[in-house]
Write a structure and sequence with these properties.
- By secondary structure, the chain is an alpha/beta fold.
- It contains ten helices and nine strands.
- Strands 1, 2, 3, 4, 5, 6, 7, 8 and 9 form a nine-stranded mixed sheet that branches.
- The radius of gyration is 17 Å and the shape is globular.
- InterPro entries: GP_PDE_dom (IPR030395), PLC-like_Pdiesterase_TIM-brl (IPR017946).
- One of its GO terms (molecular function) is phosphoric diester hydrolase activity.
């Protein structure tokens, strides 16, 4: 996971241009220069791991229901694209396996955020890790979550898997905290990232992958700070800066 240049993580795919967490968004991300994909993992009523951010299906499909309460067959029939633009009518919610296959084909780093805070998906950690291993992607995956107990469990189950601590701001010496979880990265809101913190974290063996960085001036600031990866809705903007030689 020690990339020579900053990893260009497309946030939910190229979600600035396509409906988030759809195959269209993932394909577009690669076209725009992304070297990584950030996405969200949840589980259907019948146990299928799927990629969607909200626990509720209301915002992206119009269905007033929770992901955990419907079957994959029901979920796969929903239109997850029209809310964004009519051009994407008929887009469906992908499975984790679809992305693992796509990521392996394109050599991507996959940041899988486990959405197990508001809804507790018991056993999801082991299920995700099993699939990642089956696809031979242990060295191409970062597991992140706001549920840090979940991250600790992932490290216990698969010590070779990279994990990233999601948090908003205010953690004192977060690299020290990350080490208590065995975590490899800090997935901080971007305004909670300063160059001196990035350096101290690196000395402690922990890297930064800030989110969600969209404006060129903020992307430049993060690159100058020396972060290892950036999560953005606009991977083309970051790709342009990286091509100008703005790498750590």
């Amino acid at each position: 996971m020690n990339a020579m240049t900053t990893i260009n993580f497309a946030h939910r795919g190229a979600s600035g241009y396509c409906p988030e967490n759809t195959m269209s968004a993932f394909v577009k991300a690669v076209e725009l220069g992304a070297t990584g994909i950030e996405t969200d993992v949840q589980r259907t009523k019948d146990g299928v791991l799927v990629l969607i951010h909200d626990e509720s299906l209301q915002r992206t499909t119009g269905l007033t229901a929770l992901v955990k309460d419907i079957t994959y067959e029901q979920l796969s029939a929903l239109d997850a694209g029209s809310w964004f633009h009519s051009d994407f009518s008929g887009e469906t919610i992908p499975t984790l396996e679809q992305l693992l296959s796509f990521g392996r084909e394109h050599g991507l780093i996959l940041n899988l955020e486990l959405k197990n805070g508001l809804v507790q998906y018991e056993g999801m950690e082991a299920e995700v890790l099993k699939l990642v291993s089956e696809y031979g992607l242990n060295d191409k995956v970062v597991i992140s979550s706001f549920n840090h107990y979940s991250l600790a469990l992932c490290k216990k189950l698969a010590p070779d898997i990279s994990t990233g601590v999601l948090y908003m701001e205010g953690l004192y010496r977060p690299w020290d905290y990350a080490r208590t979880l065995g975590a490899d990265a800090l997935h901080a809101i971007f305004y909670a990232v300063l160059p001196e913190w990035v350096e101290e974290a690196r000395e402690a063996g922990v890297v930064y992958h800030p989110f969600t960085v969209n404006e060129p001036r903020d992307l430049e600031r993060m690159l100058k700070a020396g972060v290892a990866g950036i999560i953005t809705d606009y991977p083309d903007r970051l790709h342009t800066l990286l091509n100008k030689g703005m790498v750590r």
